[in-house]
Each structure stands twice: as structure tokens, then as C-alpha cells.
Amino acid sequence: MFKQKLIVCFVSLCVSGFVMATEHLLTLENCRQMALEDNKQAQIDKENLEAATLMRKAAVANFFPKFSANGAYLYNSEQIHIVPDVLTLSSGATLSKNGLSTIGSTVIGQLINKGIGNTYDELYKQLTMDTHHMFAVQVGFVQPIYVGGKVIQYYKLMRSYENIEKIKSHKNDAQLIVDVEEAYWRVLSVSEKRKLAHQYAGLIRKLLANVEAAAEEGVATKADILKVRVKLNEAETNVAKAEDGLALSKMALCQLVGLPLGDSIVLDDTGLDEVIITNDEVSMDEILSRREELQMLSEAKNMAKAGVKLASAPLQPNLVASANYIATSPNLQNGFNKDFKGFFSVGVVLNVPIAHPNDILNYKAAKHKARTVELQMEEASEKVQLQATQDKHRVVEANNSLIRAKANISNAEENLRFAQAAYEEGVATSTDLMMAQTAWQQAYSEKIDAAIALRMAELTFRQHTGTLK
Prior knowledge:
10 helices, two-stranded parallel sheet
């Protein structure tokens, strides 16, 4: 028996040690830092930004010449002959590659056949190019001198695209911080509601015990007992809901900060119900400059301007320079020699567009799109100013609500003390006491809601004014 108890104690110590090892005391700053370090979206943003940076560098490379080298091999079934197989002279005589003549077998014909005919045969062979196997090698570069601004405008597009990816990364980090803070305050809210539910259930249990004792003495009735029991059932139901809600809220926070969902976390509730002083030093110009939406629209505006100039490029002259070295076998520099020989070539190409109606229409369409982005930016700027002003008023209203809720708690506590004393003196019923307890519970619940609403309003204000740390 003693051994069994010892084993049970040992197992209990191990379990309690494990729970303590997995319990985390977290502050708001801890949660924010852990979330940023474990953020998968940040890794995605990093990859997107790296891709955008490489695309911007690729656009820079377009300013420099592009070198290339090419090699070719070609097999031909026939050779190239410079002179024909049969050549007809003005005298009517014909010469062929075999040295034959149509003059006949006369003495003169035989002389022509042996003299001129043989010479033509040799000439035919010498003027035959062996093209069964042909080789060519080319090395050169192309340098754009002026291509209507395509190169520089494309670079500007890629630079703005890279900046947008940077802004997106910052915006996602800010949104993550907002999500973490919302989850943090939600856990504290539910935790406070859970404590309140337990306290309220304790008050009802104590009242039930008093009413049951009074019923035994004949002072209270069964109806009084049933009323208290109904209220106790409601209180215990609220306790169970609060327990479940707290567990789910903690899981959501653990998921954001990268902790296992089963870990136990304890949050620092310092300053939960403190009144917040809104920072009046943030000017509207600073707010507008910090908002990621406006920053991205500004880059989109730059991209639209570059797009207009890019659309005008096909309507402008293009000047391109090139240089090449070409070597072939057979080559034409020394008869039909099979050795590789080559030559240099340098030149420029000028293209002047004359009638390109489609490019004109594309250019006009690009200008309208650029104007659309400008209007969107103006509209967004107006909305941001209105939003920041409204958020500031919401913080002020939430502050006032919290102050009123704290004042209501004092009144509810005083009312509960009077009701408790009156019930104990027999001048108040259990129903009166339950009403006072319910009012006390409601006042504390409203104070918790007001405190969380203030935190949420202040968080939204910091998000929309770009003052998140």
C-alpha cells in the first residue's frame, strides 16, 4: 500500500513538473515578438521580395550590351557549282564538264575538244564548292542606343514593383501585430469573464445555502429555493461557457505566436483597465505618409506613369548598334577554302515608325489608366483622413465608457452590501439580493467589455495612424 502511494505521488510530481515546464508567462511584447519570428507569411514575403529584387536587377542589365555566340552545322546532299554543266558558245559550239564538244569528229573539233574542252573541265572543277559539310561560328553583341525609353521605363516599373513588395511585407507584419494584440486582449477578456462567472456562481451558492437553511426554519419557501437554483444553473452554465471560451481563445493565441496548442499560458493583465491618452502629436501629414495603402498607391502611380511612357515607345525612333565576328567553312575569302576564316562587322539600325494606329490607341489607354490611379489615390487619402479622425473619437468615447463603467462598479458594490445586510436582517428577500448580485455581476462584465473595447479602439487608432511599434 505504501509503495502504491509512493508511485502515485511520483507520477503526480512528474505530471505537475511537465505542466510547469510547458506553462508560459507572456506579456504583450513577448507575444508580438514570438509571432513575428514564427510568421510563415513573413517567409513568403521574403521570397516575393527576393524575386522582385532580382527582377529589378535584371532590368538594370538591359542598359548594357547583350553578348551572344552561335554555332551551326549544315549537311547538303549536293555541291554548289558556279558554272553550268554545259556551256554554249556564241559560235554554236557547246562545252561540258566532261570536255566534250558538239563540233564533231573533225580535226578542228578534236582540237577544241582536247584544248578548250579540257580547260573548261578543269575550270568547272575549280569553281565547284564542296558544300556537303558547312560550318559557321558567330560571336557578337547588340547595344540599344535609344529604343523610345523602353529600357529606363521598364527599370522604373521593376523598381516600383520591388518597393510594393517591401510595403506589403511591412503591412503584413503590422496586420500580424494587430491580430496578436486582438487575440491577447480577447484571452484576457474571457479570463476576466471566467473569474467573474466563478465569483458570481459562488455568491449564488452561498445564497442557496442561506435560503435552504431559512426554509428549514420556515422563513423561506420552496419557491424561493427554486428561484435561487434556477439562477445557480444559469451561473454554472456561464462558468462552463467561459471555461470553453478561454481554452479556445488561448489556442488561437498560441497558434499566432507559434506555441503548441496544448501549452498552458498565463498573460500579464497589467494596465488592462487603464485609461489611455490618445497621442495628439501625430499630424495628418505623418499619418498619410505612414499608411501602407497610400504608399502602395503612390508606387502604383509611378508604375502607371512609366506605363504611359512605355506605351509611347513604339511611336518613337529606335536606334540599335551591333558588332559581330563571323567565321565559316568553306569560306569565300580565299576561293572555296575549307579552313575557318572570318570577318568583323559593325553597324547601326534605325527604325522610324510611320503609321501605327494600334500603338497610338494603346498610348491613350495607358494615360487613362494613369489618371484612374491618381483618382484612387486622392479618394484613399480622403478616406484615411476621415478614418483617423473617427478612430481618435472612438478612443475618446471608449475612455469615457470605461470611466463610467468603473463608477457603476462602485455603485453596484455599495448596492450589493446594502442588499446583503438587508437580507441578513430580514428586511429584504432572496429575490432582492439576487437582483443586487446580478446588477453587481453585470457592472463588472460591462467594465471588462469597456476595458477591452478601449484596447481595441486604441489598437485600431495605432494601426490606422501608422504608430504601431
